[in-house]
């Protein structure tokens, strides 16, 4: 479906005049469009930026219904600096519109330069360019997640408890290389990971975030020299990283994975990482959870020495996973969950291959349904390939090709142990969970 057709679905009508998408939602769909200053019949249309995403429209509507516009207008009247910035935004808006066609129209949108009349228009302007009132209605948050295999970043706007992505990215640094064996972070993995964290922190700051959280997980937890890593991150970023416990990791992953799910609860949320796997059972919140020392990198290093792996090596991975999953079953109990939610790179990569994607497509992967047969087929194919052959697959992220087999085996064993025939894939995870957790704090800006 092209952008115009998507916008028509979002609006429930055909968009008027020429449009261009200037901001997109986390799934690559239109969030804000730029419209033509004049309609096809010649009628002037002074609103240049238009919010189309139904989720954002709904959440902004809640703010308007709660009286936020009156509060912001009162703040505008009492804050000289805010008034000046608002007036500058008004003039930029007119300049941008006049660059397309001069309507000889002094009004811009949303009540600028002196009133607050439409938060939808002001937020759309903020996402397309910059608007100080539009910026106030959201809290912009940056999260950097340091995992065993990768470093990831999320920059998102928090609106009434929901998230709208600004940027989401990943780089594989393999911080946990050798940690299962040596219980130490290697000098080179530490160096490249800290460099990635510093780079992502600067990218988050470039988006004028209100707060940045840097979290570290399994590899750092397990390392005897974890303090060296934490100090290196402090020096590189000026920020205090947070070392999550396994239980915290499980709960935050559950929060992120269930933020937009419509499938029936209770859920079993399964987060297969490089060094650990978190399993969480719950409905509206995490109720029972466990973090297992089972991950794609850890079990690859323990059991797989040949390329492609032998049948005995695959059996060893499965047996190791099974032993740990018995611990999980005891911790979680035998209560039935209606939906299994799978998240993180192993599961999203298996989903992309099962779907036959020719590259990463977040919208296609999010809430895709994987059957046991899908997973067995993908795992079987990957097992017969060399790392080089796996690397050549269109949907294989660079740096995951040598650990994906162990990850796929873990996924198979989880579904077998907990008797699920289907896994609902989630592209929202601990990154989103941390962002939501920060949003729920009493004062985001003070943190």
SSE arrangement:
Blueprint: H1 3-11, E1 19-24, E2 30-35, E3 49-51, H2 54-65, H3 68-78, H4 80-100, H5 119-128, H6 132-136, E4 139-146, E5 150-159, E6 162-172, H7 179-182, H8 187-206, E7 211-216, H9 218-222, H10 226-237, E8 242-243, H11 246-257, E9 267-272, E10 277-282, E11 286-292, H12 296-303, H13 311-332, E12 339-343, H14 345-354, H15 362-365, E13 369-371, H16 372-384, H17 387-391, H18 404-417, E14 422-426, H19 430-439
Parallel strand pairs: 4-7, 7-8, 9-12, 12-14
Antiparallel strand pairs: 1-2, 2-3, 4-5, 5-6, 9-10, 10-11, 13-14
Features:
447 residues; alpha/beta; Nucleotidyltransferase, domain 5; 3 domains; 6-stranded mixed β-sheet; 5-stranded mixed β-sheet; 46% helix; elongated
Protein architecture, described:
Strands 11-10-9-12-14-13 form a six-stranded mixed beta sheet, sandwiched between helices. The longest helix has 22 residues, at 311-332. It folds into three domains: 3-137, no CATH class; 139-246, Nucleotidyltransferase, domain 5; 262-427, Nucleotidyltransferase, domain 5. It is built from 19 helices and 14 strands. 46% of the residues lie in helices and 19% in strands. It is of the alpha/beta class and 447 residues long. Strand 9 (267-272) and strand 10 form a beta hairpin.
CATH architecture of the largest domain: 2-Layer Sandwich
The stretches of 5 or more residues where confidence is low (pLDDT under 50) are 442-447
CATH hierarchy class name of the largest domain: Alpha Beta
CATH superfamily of the largest domain: Exopolyphosphatase. Domain 2
* Sheet having the most strands: 6 strands, mixed
Estimate nothing, just give the exact number of structural domains: 3
Structural class per helix/strand content? alpha/beta
User: What is the share of helical residues?
Assistant: 40-55%
- The CATH topology of the largest domain corresponds to Nucleotidyltransferase, domain 5
The share of residues in extended strands comes to: 15-25%
Q: What characteristic shape results from the CA principal axes?
A: elongated
Distance between the termini: 42 Å
Estimate the mean pLDDT confidence.
90
Count of distinct strands: 14
Radius of gyration computed on alpha carbons: 24 Å
Give the strand line-up of the largest sheet.
Answer: 11-10-9-12-14-13
Task: Give the helix tally.
Answer: 19
